[in-house]
Design a protein that fits this description.
This protein is α+β, with helices and mostly antiparallel strands. It has a single domain, classed as Nuclear Transport Factor 2, Chain: A, CATH 3.10.450. A 6-stranded mixed β-sheet has the order 2-1-6-5-4-3. A hairpin with a 2-residue loop joins strand 1 and strand 2. The longest helix has 18 residues. The relative contact order is 0.20. One of its GO terms (molecular function) is isomerase activity.
Length: 122
């Protein structure tokens, strides 16, 4: 990664969210822009593949949450990125904050290949 890791991870999720919430582009096209076809995320022990990611876009698009990331630290080693951040979300008049510990792998063109996320509400 040529970009600062904090900037990269914030830009990745911000751009993905903006594309989902602020466009009518096909969700599968958006997911494929940001992820490899064999993407596998493990979020709090729950496996999420490409099809589940696409399905997850429906409630995101319906609720149209506002969000911002506060990246506390991020490090890279080759194609691997580790980050600790807080996701601040405003949805239906409620404010949520979620601490995230993220460990992932990315392709040279910036698409996510694999991710392990541990989260907790704060």
């Amino acid at each position: 990664m040529k970009t600062d890791p904090k900037t990269f991870i914030a830009d990745f999720f911000t751009s993905l969210s903006d594309d989902l919430v602020n466009t009518d582009e096909d969700a599968a096209v958006i997911i494929d822009r940001y992820h490899t076809p064999d993407i596998m995320q493990l979020a709090d022990g729950n496996p999420i593949d490409r099809d589940k990611l696409i399905a997850h876009t429906r409630p995101v698009r319906k609720n149209r949450p506002e969000s911002r990331m506060e990246v506390h630290e991020a490090y890279t080693d080759g194609d691997r990125l580790a980050a600790r951040y807080t996701l601040h979300v405003r949805q239906r008049g409620k404010d949520l904050a979620i601490d995230v510990h993220f460990f992932g792998r990315f392709t040279p063109d910036g698409r996510m290949r694999e991710a392990h996320l541990l989260t907790r509400s704060v």
